[in-house]
Amino acid sequence: MVSPSISDGLVDMARLVGSAIGRATTALLDADLQLAESVISADARVDDAQRDLEDRAIAILARQQPVATDLRVVVASLRMSVDLERSGDLAEHVARLARLRFPKFAVPGDLHRKILEMGQLAQRLMAQAAEVIITKDVDAALQLEQDDDRMDELHRMLFPHLMDDRWKHGVETAVDVTLVGRYYERFADHAVSIARRVVYLVTGELTTDASITP
Amino acid sequence: MVSPSISDGLVDMARLVGSAIGRATTALLDADLQLAESVISADARVDDAQRDLEDRAIAILARQQPVATDLRVVVASLRMSVDLERSGDLAEHVARLARLRFPKFAVPGDLHRKILEMGQLAQRLMAQAAEVIITKDVDAALQLEQDDDRMDELHRMLFPHLMDDRWKHGVETAVDVTLVGRYYERFADHAVSIARRVVYLVTGELTTDASITP
Fold first, then answer.
1. A21 C-beta neighbours (distance < 10 Å), count
2. Is there a contact between B175 and A174 (Cβ–Cβ < 8 Å)?
3. I need a surface site. Which of A72, A155, B156, B189 has the fewest CB within 10 A?
4. Alpha-carbon span A86 to A92, nearest angstrom
């Protein structure tokens, strides 16, 4: 056991960013400025946690000089911490969009339900990723990947909506929805990427990135 | 000197992705399907290079057990290789958009010049990042960061254009331009992130992410 503290650090980060995406979604759909601000300012904690984790990893590499699997775990953790930091940024972007459009709603009513589903799914996928880090359960990791297919589907479904002749919310809102859709989809990709790293550590097989959407 | 081969690997990756963003921009602006396809298929080389570099880093950590600065260089290299891999994905996304809209042009004529400037600047910033990796020149790294301000400016300038009442290219094109603008801006952020890591290794001071645009 090279690094329970690193694993704990990753799980803490996953909880922070999972909470952030949930709160950001609420801020976006409710046009809640105060909640948006709280998500934006809380992202500094995620960045701190990432730096802290990197420092701990470096300390472990220097002092314990792990080899074989233990070494791979530390290197994989560094990679996962980058995914988590980036996920935090994406949650912050959602909150920034809510703030930018306040007191207006950035998301029109007829897309409310789809964006809510994307936001909830993003939060759930990150919770699954945290669980996979803890349990190292390969089946749960594969399940996460399947659940991400729904995110890709939701993301794809946004575009015909925006490009429908009956779209009446203008270009600004179409641009907002395009960006927010991409933020959720990328957030989910990071959760998938974390799960794949865990699978790789357990099985030695790295699934390709082919199914991660552009 | 712990890792000339790692540094070479990073520079090779930077060259690959710099070339990819340049070619993707040409494919996008010329609606050149063949060129777009070549960028898309070439991204596998970037992914291979990243895995190869990670394997080399792990081998160095296991065999040489570097400490202090040497250890930080290896860890920073891992982080930079992730930035480069992601930059390659972004170049691929630009090419995929060109392919998606072929034989039409994804970018309308009146935005051609701005997108060309973003594409050229992205390629230049990555070339600067490669140079910074080689020279470890802190001034050049700071210059790169300043040059990235122009990318942020170009990116910001896109939105008023899309939202102008005189915009006559429809929502689909607005969505395309929104995404492509974001791809370039993120690509540039990765170049900045690489330069910052080098500065950190040289000076021990990590500049904040505050000026990296959401």
1. 31
2. yes
3. B156
4. 10
- CA distance to partner chain A, nearest, from residue B159 (Å): 8
> For every one of its 214 residues, what pLDDT tens digit does chain A have, with 9 covering 90 and above?
456 789 999 999 999 999 999 999 999 999 999 999 999 999 999 999 999 999 999 999 999 999 888 999 999 999 999 999 999 999 999 999 999 999 999 999 999 999 999 999 999 999 999 999 999 999 999 999 999 999 999 999 999 999 888 899 999 999 999 999 999 999 999 999 999 999 989 987 666 554 444 4
User: Could you please report the per-residue DSSP string of B139-180?
Assistant: HHHHHHHHHHHHHHHHHHHHHHHHHSTT--SHHHHHHHHHHH
- Look up residue A40 and give its two tokens: 């934006």
Per-residue b/e over B174-211, b at no fewer than 16 CB within 10 Å? bbbbbbbbbbbbbbbbbbbbbbbbbbebeeeeebeeee
d(CA B163, CA A45): 35
Chain B residues in contact with A93 by the CB 8 A cut-off are 214
Smallest Cα–Cα separation from A184: which of A82, A97, A76, A81?
A97
> Contact B171/A171, CB-based, under 8 Å?
yes
Whether the CB-CB separation of B120 and B147 falls below 8 Å is answered with no
Place of tokens 């080399």: B56
Query: In whole angstroms, what is the distance from residue A180 CA to residue A184 CA?
Result: 6
- The domains of chain A are located at 4-203
The residue written with tokens 């230049």 in the block is B124
On chain B, the residues whose CB falls within 8 A of the CB of A61 are: 61, 71, 75
H/E stretch holding A184? helix A170-203
CA B161 to chain CA centroid, nearest Å: 24
Answer whether A61 sits within 8 Å of B75, measured CB to CB: yes
0.95 exceeded by the pTM?
no
CATH fold of B4-203, please?
Methane Monooxygenase Hydroxylase; Chain G, domain 1 (1.20.58)
